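Morning!

As promised:
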Amino acid sequence: MELSLILGISILGLLFAVYLIRDVLRRDTGTPKMREISDAIKSGAEAFLRRQNRTILYLAVALAAIIYILYAFVRAANEHDPASPAQLALWTTLSFVLGALCSVAAGYMGMWVAIRSNIRTAAGATRDMNSALQPALRGGAVSGFFVVAMSLLGVAGLFGVVHATGVSPDVTKIPLLIVGYGFGASFVALFAQLGGGIYTKAADVGADLVGKVEAGIPEDDPRNPAVIADLVGDNVGDCAGRGADLFESTAAENIGAMILAAGLYRANTAVFEAQGLTILGVLLFPLVARAFGIIASMIGILAVKTTDQEDPMKALNRGYAITSVLAIIGFFVASRWLLGSEYYLNFFFCGMIGVLTAFAFVLITQYYTEYRYRPVKSIAEASQTGPATNIIAGIAVGMESTGYPILVIAAAIISAYFLGEHSGLQHAGLFGTAVATMGMLGTAAYILAMDTFGPITDNAGGIVEMSQQPKEIRDRTDRLDSVGNTTKALTKGYAVGSAALAAFLLFSAYIDEVKVYMPSFSGVINLNKPEVFVGSMLGAVLVFIFSSLAIKAVGRAAYSIINNVREQFKNNPGIMLGTAKPDYGQCVDIATKSALREMVIPGLLPVVVPVAVGVLFKWLYNASGQPVNGASGAEVVGGLLMVGTIVGILMALFLNNGGGAWDNAKKFIETGAYGGKRSDPHKASVVGDTVGDPFKDTAGPSLHVLIKLLSTITLVLAPLFI
Amino acid sequence: MELSLILGISILGLLFAVYLIRDVLRRDTGTPKMREISDAIKSGAEAFLRRQNRTILYLAVALAAIIYILYAFVRAANEHDPASPAQLALWTTLSFVLGALCSVAAGYMGMWVAIRSNIRTAAGATRDMNSALQPALRGGAVSGFFVVAMSLLGVAGLFGVVHATGVSPDVTKIPLLIVGYGFGASFVALFAQLGGGIYTKAADVGADLVGKVEAGIPEDDPRNPAVIADLVGDNVGDCAGRGADLFESTAAENIGAMILAAGLYRANTAVFEAQGLTILGVLLFPLVARAFGIIASMIGILAVKTTDQEDPMKALNRGYAITSVLAIIGFFVASRWLLGSEYYLNFFFCGMIGVLTAFAFVLITQYYTEYRYRPVKSIAEASQTGPATNIIAGIAVGMESTGYPILVIAAAIISAYFLGEHSGLQHAGLFGTAVATMGMLGTAAYILAMDTFGPITDNAGGIVEMSQQPKEIRDRTDRLDSVGNTTKALTKGYAVGSAALAAFLLFSAYIDEVKVYMPSFSGVINLNKPEVFVGSMLGAVLVFIFSSLAIKAVGRAAYSIINNVREQFKNNPGIMLGTAKPDYGQCVDIATKSALREMVIPGLLPVVVPVAVGVLFKWLYNASGQPVNGASGAEVVGGLLMVGTIVGILMALFLNNGGGAWDNAKKFIETGAYGGKRSDPHKASVVGDTVGDPFKDTAGPSLHVLIKLLSTITLVLAPLFI
């Protein structure tokens, strides 16, 4: 019953996405000039994604083989295994492959529609605001529904198949067979976000530095040879990358919550049975709650309409409010139905905490990145004394911006834990924090629609600009573009917040999993053991090294683009005069090649390090005769995971908010403050904006994925450290 | 016997410092013009330090009163207390006050001599290199010996007095009565380093931005109204600040190591007694090892001589090698004597690990901050495409530079722990890591001499420049200045390394202390409890907020100086023409006032946060009926302390090395690379250098102190969280 409902709603979500695609595609595609530009973007983006997916799939196949070999041949069987070694190896590998394929597909679909929505948004802008807003939001929503529905369908489907085959006699152990799904999704997401993030910012930085700063031509000027690469970058970085990111967030969270639900059922079997609640109901509660969230998001999306007079942000906020209210109602129904009339209330409140946390994160992100408030203003003010003080102020703002989010997360974890502990069920504290995460991710489809809305409107603006449309139309797309910038920043705040909550859920799941395989494990990750302390240090330093590699990769790739643009300007003076057309393809090609080359090392790092640490410390522990006060490999990896997560969250907040604040400090000066455009403070603020680019669009978002990848890889490999 | 030896050597160290003072003071003070400049520096530095010490002492007196009240009236007596509540309150408060006073005195003495050595170094440079090198190194050594000898004298003296009064019948609990000494020292050190760091970089950034960048006059040009403030800053930031920092390092480490030695003795009483080893001998082993290190440093300092032909760095390295070899011999003697013939060898090897760790840190720091190597070169190369890419490259280098040091620390902790575990004694693993820390800090006096050497030669260079000496003399001070830059960078690497090792020692001491007061405490800091996870997040975010505040403080203070300099240039055009003298006093005064105002909030933050967290979670734990799976206040604070330390070390490495690399990338371009001085890449590199200033000289070094302050404050307040 529960399973059919989930599968049904997932399929409904996919059908809705197909409906949205048809709705977008039947719209007007504007003038031939517009189509020409849009086609250039389309072919660049598709070429990049094809090549990127090929690279990722090679890596994924190699990893799948390694996982299979490790499980089937290296690992010793354990009496607590959920299934026979052969079955365990088979299903773990299969679910990894399926997770990877679905993640690739979700990212690809999102982008496929986005690069077709941009031109329709541009064409719609020639008529009125509603005709521009709807294709942008609905195009973005395709990505949202594909991602959320497919991740749900994948997890529920795998669960159903494994359940039907009966390979695991103990139903509560089924989630352990499909943890590979989350890891497959994370693995793809990390490379998609890294590759896309490097591409987009290398193109952006390259285009800006030679175009705006050296040649003095405006943004999106068709004379800039890197302009198409820049527009392609918005799609591959923001649509495809973020899509893969949120695909894995929801997939990993679904599985993690099921593992915790299994633990809850084991600890409270008698109570649940007395209430007439089934094991399947409790296990599938997280998926049902997610399914109801999809329905809420559908209604929210369809409700968005606007007029030329209204601020488009208002229309989007209206849709979000409708989605949130419906999601809360759905959450109430799901918890009342599946968790029993006596115990559901505290968990419902946990879900509300999740919704409130999402809201708080959005508010804090606004405070730190919008120029109405003190932080961005302080950066603009510091620009008066040059680029150095602009940078110092921006770094200080970025570091400061970690404070409130951490307090909010701390309050959410503690209060959800206590609500769970006092729900009347045994050992329900961690499940309470898991439910808060579900509440936060309930509106994920709508949020993701708003997020992908950003690059679509950005592209539409570029198309309108490059096809030299009249000012009235440019004004419409400019307004939409600025709304898109806001939604992109807000959804980034939401993404970190949910990553932070989900991380706590995921490593609770890790502990539960280790306990299943090794019932003697106390569940303690004791920081006071030198091995665990060392593991924690390594987790923390991993974040720094990864960020360094990601940032450096952008620098190197941008450098290649800059050199190409300079060369084109030099060899063909007609470009600057407007008499000759630059060769856009060269920059697209260079960006593609550099991004794919540069993503491999930072992408493999978070895969290799936890494994190496786990294996090394397992060996050390066994070699010294498993001393009582020693730490097992699983415990050391636990420290790595937890402290790596904490530092990852802080670093992501620092990078995202710092980058966003620099960006808007520049925009604030462009409104006329401190001398306005072309003044010295403006030049200083452009330096800050450029520094912030790889922070907020490459390293920061990749860290969200890294945090969850650390969790999913340890979930998959935990049996090997034991 | 052991105690008299330690007290004797401490006093010998102080007498040696007095001998060095006399040696420096009897030297030639150069021309009247030189004296005029030196006097201006002297009066500025002394005025700042007087006002700063007044502010710090007010804060310290208030804190002493709070500590006394908390211990005497708020805290409930405990059967495991080392002494009666009244005695415990008295000695904790007294040792706090004494630690604070000694730290102030050590910082003041170091600076008092430094501002008298600079002129003598300048005057010596008019004759030959040796006459310049000796007063600089010996002046620096005064600081080194005062700091190390006074911290040893204070700890040993307090121990002796408490022992003699007999307030604690159990000798192994005496260290718990004097933990306040380390906290007093840390408290003063934090404000001294913060205030001095803000002063020096505000003056430096201010002087550079208006002088070098806007007005286009060289560094140390007498026309720049901020030039004297800049020279004063070197003294108050580097001499007084670093002196207080290392004072507290050695004091905290002495006490922490004694607490662990007490634990070791309790666990192995029978074995030690069978070997004829006394409790006093084991307890005082850390102090004896330190005392022998003082003698080694003395001989090393006296051995340094050079000629005009030799590279002065070589002479310093020769002295360091002599000191290291003697310190190792002393360590061997101390461990053989006090830890027994059967068990000493593994601990001696732990000490060697400490020496090797120090050496590795120096090498890694060189690699990341000298322009002979790839990292700095990559920043210089990135300067070709402007300030934005220079900044991006520098941040990437700073983040990358955290990798090897963490691997080294990890290897040191694990190997020293295993050597201790396999020494044949029970529970000796943590003591092994403590012994490695002692090994690392054995040469502290010599290292500190090299460190203070930096600002002295920097000042000497400024005096020679401003008094317009001939080129030959300027060349000598320039060579010394560049050696001083190197030693400053290296000693910063040494300081973080020792902070990292000492931190692990200190929180092992914290756990041991909590166990004494609450024998039921398991010693486990379980990251998997939500409270501990939240505490850890708060520890990590504390580092980010603190760094943000420190960096912002420099920005704000520099802004005031820039405005004053611009005003002076505008109101008195004669300054730029060289016909009128600028008013140096105004800038000195502004720097003083801003630094003192700005240091208070960041300085109080790391004091308030751990206390607030400890009290809040103690209340929460008690309010929910002390659940078995809940976390006590002591455990939550343990998480805060450990993760705060890990993040603090990483952030300090990032800030120090990033700043150092930017600085030398600029210097590399000044050697003629990429167009040399006044080229566009040079301008870009100046931006990076300016951004790096508050990183490497304010926030970074203050974080070293913060790490240890977190440890010492938790040591002092642990009894309150129980």
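The mean pLDDT of chain B is 88.

Hope this helps with the figure draft.
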